[in-house]
Known about the structure:
The protein is of the alpha/beta class. It has three domains: 5-122, Gyrase A, domain 2 (2-Layer Sandwich); 131-214 and 383-432, tRNA modification GTPase MnmE domain 2 (Four Helix Bundle (Hemerythrin (Met), subunit A), Up-down Bundle), CATH 1.20.120.430; 219-298 and 300-370, 3-Layer(aba) Sandwich (Rossmann fold). The chain is 45% helix and 17% strand. It contains 14 helices and twelve strands. The protein has helices at 28-35, 89-101, 111-118, 124-135, 139-149, 152-176, 188-217, 231-239, 282-297, 313-322, 360-370, 387-408, 413-431, 437-444, and strands at residues 5-8, 18-24, 48-56, 59-69, 80-86, 105-106, 219-224, 257-263, 266-272, 300-306, 328-332, 348-351. The strands form two sheets. A six-stranded mixed β-sheet has the order 3-4-5-2-1-6, with helices on one face. Strands 8-9-7-10-11-12 form a six-stranded mixed β-sheet, sandwiched between helices. The longest helix has 30 residues, at 188-217. The chain is flat and about 85 Å long. It starts with a strand and ends in a 7-residue tail after the last helix.
Amino acid sequence: MEDTIVAISTNNIGIGAINIIRMSGQESLEILQQVFSNKKIKQAKSHTIHYGFIMNNGEKIDEVLVSIMRAPKTYTKEDIVEINCHGGYAITNKILEILILHGARLAEPGEFTKRAYLNGRLNLLEAESIEDLLESQTENQTILAMNHLTGKTTKLITSLRDKIVKLLSNIEVNIDYPEYIDELQITKENIKPVLTEVKEELEKIIQEAKNGELIKNGIKVAIIGKPNVGKSSLLNAILEQDKAIVTNIQGTTRDAIEASIVYQGILLNLIDTAGIRKTNNIVEKIGVEKSKQLIKEADITILVLNNNEELSKEEQNLLQIIDNQNNIIFINKNDLPTKLKPIKTNMSIVSGSAQNKKGIEQLKNQIIKNFHLENLNKKELNYLTNIRQITLAKEALNNINNVIKDNEKNIPIDILTIELKSAWENLGKIIGEYYEDELVDNIFKRFCLGK
Length: 451
């Protein structure tokens, strides 16, 4: 990390009034001095802003404000320079080009945050939260990311690691220094409560991680049913806008239509699928098959039925396929005479009219209720949120379960330390302790350029 990196940190360059170009590394101030009109800028105090011009071969390129931030009190713990220039596409790229010509290197995606991690400014859990914070669309997503960034979630993991390492230390002392009689003598019986406590805390973290995934990624909601039952009308009613084309012609929706809405702080990712029926139309047939696939991929499925019609064979088949208490039946057109017979099902049933906007709030509430998200305590949103984190937590739990089983089999205490160490290391990987360089590189490649 001896080279100095540079990138444009603002999004949609060429649209906004101002763009920011960020430079980080030990040569940042030296490079700036070569291109800035104030030739004493290298002696400037940390965390100060300076007015001047970016110069190139004696020519003024742009009027700018330059922020100077000296190590170690910076985002990367290196010297950082931020140039606030005018927002034009051409001028921003011209300044970037000048900085590169004077010795800076174009940063890779996520490289600024990667340096913050490698320099000890952030742990890996906190670094990943930066990406989540940038991409957050709801208040809950922002709170979850901030709890990661400010270390609240890290404390949960660190607390578990401390309990495991304390147990490991006592075992090691017993083995290596048996003469220290003041130390707690580790036995099968007194190790059991500690293992049980760690196991229960890990199970809770993993269980609550499901909420974390839903808050971060949103709930994927598939709206299904036979043609012309009101799926597109329902999508429009939930969104409170005309997203999908609505006609009384069967098979209007040939492909899935996707849209999102934030409800009670949760992102609902809605998918209006093609009507499911037997058809000889090749295009419609592809849409039907795609609808069936989306049922498998969705977090929750809403089956739309017509209050004014009896169940068809296709609908009876769909009921069997999705009969799960996590899914919902929406009986549409309840303002028309009832011909639909009572349905025996494990699913929640909501009745209403998509056209008249009746039952829509109840339906949205039911989606949230089915995932037990209606009473979220925003102060306690300390969940793991991605596959990497959750997989490592599950591996740590598996290690602890193995220790518990071996302990019951009277396996010698010193042998138990192998799995205990693995659990401690897996938890450490969540926050970036003992992590392979290649995996770290892959994590930060997901970040946007300039971050």
